[in-house]
Amino acid sequence: MKIVKQYNSGFTLVELIVITGILVLCGGVIASIIFNTLRGSKKSANTNAVTQNGNFALSSITEVVNKADGIVSTCNNTSSKILLLSSSKTNTVYTISCIGETNINISQSNQATGIPIGLPVSLLSPGVRLSDNSCSLKCTQAVPNITGAISPNPFIKPLIEISFVLTDLDRSTAADTRAQATFRTSVLMRSYEP
């Protein structure tokens, strides 16, 4: 009679530990790839929101400057947080302001009575705000004189310079998903009448 040895086919403890280690390593690599992709997607969404808000604010301010034909505030080549422009055609005063260092507003009022026309329009969505002390509205209506000094000239069309920095209000703690952008433009008041 022949004695047949039976071997239990199965895995040894060492083989199970090796396979588990390989699976954990592959899972970690896949999780890292997914995490980095999602973080990049969040950064892209934040950057897109900041860019859209900044471009909308610049185009809205440019539109108001193009409508205006006069300046109510002083045009002395210094930065301020409020700029007052007027339109004699529509009898309107436009106020462009950086209110509370968090938002940019445009409001209208009747030039003769000073009564507001509608509510102020906020140019930024709730998820975006101005960076601290970054908003600058500057009116320049001057030319260099013979000595090189700049002297005001009320017959020159004013140049309105707008500058601000926007940041998103992402509540995440990851600094690499936050977005910030600087916006600048200069607009010549084409309709200006001294």
**Residue windows where pLDDT falls under 50 for at least 5 positions:** none
Order of neighbouring strands in the sheet with most strands: 1-3-4-5-6
User: Order of helices and strands, N to C?
Assistant: HEEEEEEEEEEEE
Sheet/helix structural class: alpha+beta
Compute the number of strand runs.
12
DSSP helical segment count:
1
- What fraction of the residues are assigned to beta strands by DSSP? 25-35%
Helix content: 25-40%
Q: How would the global form be characterised?
A: rod-shaped
What's the story with the biggest beta sheet? 5 strands, antiparallel
Could you please describe the fold and organization of this structure?
With 194 residues, the chain is an alpha+beta fold. 28% of the residues lie in helices and 31% in strands. Strand 4 and strand 5 form a beta hairpin. The model has no long low-confidence stretch (mean pLDDT 83).
List the helices and strands and how they pair.
Blueprint: H1 13-67, E1 70-71, E2 79-80, E3 82-87, E4 92-99, E5 103-110, E6 121-122, E7 128-130, E8 136-140, E9 142-144, E10 150-152, E11 159-168, E12 180-188
Antiparallel strand pairs: 1-3, 2-8, 3-4, 4-5, 5-6, 7-11, 8-11, 9-10, 11-12
Summed up:
Helices cover 28% and strands 31% of the residues.
Features:
single chain; 194 residues; alpha+beta; five-stranded antiparallel β-sheet; 12 strands
